[in-house]
Design goal:
87% helix; mainly alpha; 98 residues
Length: 98
């Protein structure tokens, strides 16, 4: 397949996907958002478990974050938590609109 045909195929596919997405019911879109939220929550749990297993009470009870690895994990967890809060608020807004 030449490059031009691949580009045309991508454009056609993206248009078709957009059309199909618009035709989906709001319930399915809401279910997709809830599923994404659950997956992100599980990912957050994994990160928190790793942090606890690797660094234990020192981080969770005493709030002491020593070293770049701990700080990196804590930042990543904070970012995930913020994203989850945003997504949760979006879902709540959609839920109240319908």
């Amino acid at each position: 397949m030449d490059k031009e045909k691949v580009i045309q195929y991508k454009e056609l596919f993206s248009k078709k996907f957009a059309t199909l997405w618009e035709e989906l019911g709001d319930d399915l879109k809401w279910a997709k958002d809830v599923t994404e939220l659950r997956v992100q929550m599980e990912y957050l749990e994994v990160k928190q478990d790793r942090l606890f297993k690797d660094y234990g009470k020192k981080v969770f009870i005493y709030g002491q974050a020593d070293g770049p690895q701990v700080i990196s994990l804590l930042r990543e967890i904070e970012l995930i938590e913020r994203e989850l809060q945003k997504k949760y608020l979006q879902i709540q807004k959609l839920k109240t609109e319908h």
